[in-house]
Amino acid sequence: MTWLKEKLGTEKAIIAMCHFDALPGDPHFDEEGGMEKVIEHAKADFLALQEGGVDAVMFSNEFSLPYLTEVRTETVAAMARIIGELKPLIKIPFGVNVLWDAKKSLDLAKAVDAVFVREIFTGVYGSDFGLWNTNVGETVRHQKQIGAQNVKLLFNIVPEAATYLGDRDITSVAKSTVFNNRPDALCVSGLTAGTETDAATLKIVKDVVPNTVVFANTGVRLNNVEDQLSIADGAVVGTTFKKEGIFENHVDQARVKEFMDKVKAFREQL
User: Fold this and answer.
1) pTM above 0.70, yes or no
2) Each residue of 238-264: pLDDT tens digit?
3) Which CATH number fits domain 14-264: 3.40.449.10, 3.20.20.390, 3.40.30.10, 3.40.50.2300?
4) Per-domain residue ranges of the chain
5) CA dist list (Å): 56 to 13, 64, 206
6) How far apart (Å, rounded) are the C-alpha atoms in residues 75 and 77?
7) Distance CA 60, CA 160 (A)
8) Which residues of 130-142 are buried (b: 16+ CB within 10 A; e: fewer)?
9) Mind telling me which InterPro entries this protein's record contains (predicted)?
């Protein structure tokens, strides 16, 4: 049994993404609609996910494009307000992801009592957002300083829209990440949100770190969820739950329920 059972209520857990619209300070923030519109959309998406039967939700500033690797205060403040307004409605475990800033993710998690965070904690990358460096030693010390030791850390080791600098294959990255950092989970992604996680890569990672929770992080769909969950310990799902399966759209509860019904049937066979 993994920590998923204790914290998320089940093995082979599905973490659904609740993507916030662009926030104050972001290039595409809707000044006319303001925060009220952002909160209205977040509430509708969250309730569709929760009522559709997902195991947990991860709140992220997905439409704060293009992303920063040192996120500004106004973004974290806006996310805290949204989650604070949603908290009376939340009945399932939740996590947060402040794209792409590990320390800010932990700050937000501590403030809103999140169970987990997902981030790029390790490595140096060439990305669409420029040279992307990390400092995991500083990050985990910050985690301790703010009293967030109980927050589970999901290490994304195949960051979207980025390439590892240095000649290292996924096997060595997975092994050294686990040895040096003792992550609560590893996340394996496709190239961008909604792009299927390569099953062969997923299996390589799980085989080399069998005692670590591994999530399929992108592109899990109704037609591949059983295959992905036969390898991975769980999945992070976003685009699949959107209307017509389109990233920019809002959540379709019927799609969520159909997907989760299939997941629950799969879990019953284990």
Assistant:
1) yes
2) 999 999 999 999 999 999 999 999 999
3) 3.20.20.390
4) 14-264
5) 8, 22, 22
6) 5
7) 15
8) eebebebeebbeb
9) BtpA, RibuloseP-bd_barrel
